[in-house]
Design brief:
The protein contains one helix and no strands. It is elongated, with a radius of gyration of 23 Å. With 64 residues, it is mainly α. 0% of the residues are buried.
């Protein structure tokens, strides 16, 4: 009985740590997206493909 309880405690601890790590990664990714949006918002206009230099061309898909 004690072994089953110890195993369950480890499982709960593992899941709690995993969820905490997932939340931390989500917060970091969200913050990065927010920072990128804030930087592009300072231009006054949304960025489009027309803003790319003329030398940039689309590359065909690598799948065949």
């Amino acid at each position: 009985m004690a072994a089953e309880r110890a195993g369950m405690e480890w499982l709960v601890l593992f899941l709690a740590v995993w969820v905490a790590l997932a939340v931390a990664v989500a917060v970091l990714v969200g913050r990065g997206i927010r920072m990128a949006d804030a930087r592009s918002a300072g231009t006054g206009t949304p960025l489009t493909t027309a803003d790319l230099p003329a030398g940039m061309v689309a590359v065909g898909s690598a799948r065949r």
